[in-house]
């Protein structure tokens, strides 16, 4: 059965008495090993969906399952632990810690998990190397380009050996060339290490490089194409 399953997801945001429906009854299955893009215009629900799939937020109703574990009803603590162990998340704005080197950033999830220093540095360096970043391991984020910073963020997700990596518009702050290069790195990791990726984008050029495009509009899936 599917690695990640969403069932009848509804998300309603309430701010100052105003209710905004962001997802309206969405069903999605992601199989292990897939390389999937979530496409759709701004406001269609991409960020909301990825946040729910990654357990960063909870649905108003519906279910999210990672394998045999239902995420949306887990306690805050168990969800935090599960995220640390099993889900890699890559943010649009990298979210690297500015005072840490690329290596320390890539090792950060492992540090939170209590992995011993030598082991976490070994795994972080291996992850950086698989993204072509081994030579820049000692640099801090402000000494790296946007594309390099995002590769460190992918390495941080990868170093934790999660079951799935979710990325919310990972190329949104990158120029075209670095954006395509990032997706090509993710694609290679997907093929060589069988890492399951789901990422959102509104850049049509990236969609030529994926197995599957799920299109959102107004909080619903309007197309689901496999290539
Ligand atoms: P996308 O990522 O496709 O741009 P979002 O998931 O960010 O879409 O947003 C979907 C809808 O939910 C939009 O109408 C957006 O304005 C609204 N929304 C998103 N986050 C919040 C929030 N924290 N509070 C209120 N409304 C929100
Ligand atoms: P994206 O770049 O994916 O479209 P947005 O720019 O829509 O993301 O949203 C950026 C952040 O602002 C997200 O964390 C989202 O939850 C929040 N947000 C989006 N729309 C609203 C809103 N109407 N009210 C409050 N927060 C919002």
From TrEMBL:
SUPFAM superfamilies: P-loop containing nucleoside triphosphate hydrolases. The keyword Zinc-finger does not apply. One of its GO terms (molecular function) is ATP binding. Residues 4-227 form the ABC transporter domain. Coiled coil: none annotated. The keyword Transport applies. Keywords: ATP-binding, Nucleotide-binding, Transport. InterPro entries: AAA+_ATPase, ABC_transporter-like_ATP-bd, ABC_transporter-like_CS, ABC_transpr_LolD-like, MacB-like_ATP-bd, P-loop_NTPase. This is ABC transporter ATP-binding protein. It comes from Geochorda subterranea.
